[in-house]
Design goal:
By secondary structure, the chain is mainly beta. The chain has three helices and 21 strands. The protein is globular, with a radius of gyration of 22 Å.
Length: 466
């Protein structure tokens, strides 16, 4: 019973993170550099006593868990979920290179992209060819107990015509797990990476080059099961640092007023009602602190908030796993001109396996997202996605992804709808070589005409792995 509950309590996070990993891959993810992970900016003191207590609580929890974990460990469930999503049958998987107590897994991926609207423009559409070279190496531990994984990945993008958008991204990560006993473990992840903001982002500065974003992340948590009860505690600290860019007129566009620290503490309690079904209650608090007390338009964007959700967790053998949670969310802003955002919150993600060759993953979401859009305190995002993965053969994997989200910017009339659809195929010629292709279409409609665009992307890739 306890083992069953342990599997259940970790299931929904793996499924949910798997969906997050199928975000639109053509734009860059937001990510950091080690020496800029936690710089101090002005306006670090909060006028709210609750905020100071919250920051102390979250940092204290994270540090306590850090010292309690001998390895700087963390769940790279996002990476693992992505690996599983693309892995063929075992006979076609890379064998790796033995490296002491670790298995080294090097990969080199080269892809050629065609984008018919590289600047995500409503009217002035420009197309281009992009070549991306992405080496990666992973070290996976093979300990009897516990786990430690290391990842280093780089990606260089070359544009054939609009070379000002050439850029280099990287990710360095360490994750792992420390098993106190069979029902209690500590987890953690530290991550430093650099990415470039997608031209289609609502907060894109519109510079001559894409905005560079460096992000540092530290997550520490614990999971414990006792009989029918399961408990999780997760602390997360994120540092985001945006680089200034040059505008079309040669003037520098300041991005420092977007730099911020984000802290989050989440607790989840579950109780197995009967085999395969559990009641779940989840609560979280967050604190978002901007370096600059006022941005360039005179707004104080720092805030704090909380979310409480409850629902049902399902784990029916190998057929269905996931959670459906609903509740209440709120975000309170330091600037008196920004109204509090609150209301209905929802998070749902299920992994349905109708056959051994097919996986169907639907998700639903309603959450409060950060934005630096003029006059808007925050953005309420509502929508969902559907992913279908099918093994046509043991070495040929087909994936179809579709999503639709409504984005309401509080304090303005801006109301966007975003649609994304993609189909992807991966053919593993042997354990060491693969080829693949992808076609994607993305569209955004908005009450603001300049925010409307559509974009088609095609790509072919080849890869080698050991």
């Amino acid at each position: 019973m306890a083992d069953h509950q342990t599997l259940k309590t970790t299931c929904w996070r793996r499924v949910f993170i798997d969906i997050l990993n199928v975000e639109y891959r053509y734009p860059k993810l937001k990510v950091p550099q080690m020496n800029e992970v936690f710089p101090h900016g002005e306006g670090t003191m909060s006028r709210h006593p609750l905020r100071s207590s919250l920051r102390t609580l979250i940092f204290g929890s994270a540090l306590a868990l850090a010292f309690a974990t001998p390895v700087l460990a963390a769940q790279t469930q996002s990476r693992k979920a992505e690996d599983v999503a693309e892995q063929p049958a075992e006979s076609y998987q890379a064998k790796g290179i033995e490296f002491g107590s670790f298995l080294m897994l090097p990969v080199l991926d080269v892809s050629q992209h065609y984008n018919d609207n590289v600047f995500a423009s409503a009217t002035d559409r420009r197309s281009d060819w992009i070549t991306r070279i992405a080496p990666e190496v992973k070290f996976r531990s093979r300990f009897t107990n516990h786990q430690l994984n290391l990842t280093a990945k780089a990606e260089q993008s070359f544009y054939r015509e609009y070379t000002s958008d050439d850029h280099f991204d990287f990710t360095l990560a360490a994750d792992g797990r420390y098993d106190i006993d069979r029902n209690w473990k500590l987890t953690g992840i530290v991550d430093a990476s650099q990415t470039h903001e997608d031209r289609g982002s609502p907060d894109d500065a519109g510079g001559k080059e894409q905005t560079r974003l460096r992000t540092g992340t530290a997550k520490f948590g614990t999971e414990k099961t006792t009989g029918r009860f399961g408990l999780k505690l997760d602390g997360e600290a994120i540092r985001r640092d945006y680089q200034d860019v040059e505008g079309a007129n040669g003037a520098i566009i300041n991005q420092d007023d977007r730099d911020r620290d984000e802290l989050r503490l989440t607790t989840e309690l579950s109780y197995e009602l009967f085999p395969g079904y559990s009641a779940v209650v989840e609560g979280s608090v967050n604190d978002r602190k901007y370096d600059d007390r006022l941005d360039d338009r005179g707004f104080n964007r720092s805030s704090h908030g909380s979310t409480v959700r409850a629902g049902i967790g399902v784990d029916i053998s190998e057929l269905v796993r996931g959670d459906f949670l609903i509740g209440y969310m709120n975000q309170n802003y330091e600037d008196a001109r920004f109204n509090t955002i609150d209301g209905f919150s929802m998070k749902a993600s299920f992994n349905w396996t109708p056959s051994r060759m097919t996986v169907v993953i639907p998700t639903l979401e309603r959450s409060i997202q950060e934005t630096t859009t003029v006059n808007s305190s925050g953005m309420v995002r509502t929508g969902g996605s559907l992913t279908v993965r099918h093994e046509l053969q043991r070495n040929i994997i087909l994936t179809a992804i579709g999503s639709s989200y409504n984005e309401k910017y509080r304090g303005t009339t801006r109301d966007n709808w975003s649609y994304d659809s993609r189909v992807r195929g991966q053919w593993f010629l042997s354990p060491n070589y693969y080829v693949g292709g992808e076609a994607g279409y993305r569209e955004r409609t908005s009450k603001v005409d300049s925010e409307t665009f559509h974009q088609t992307v095609l790509l072919l890739r080849v890869g080698a792995q050991l």
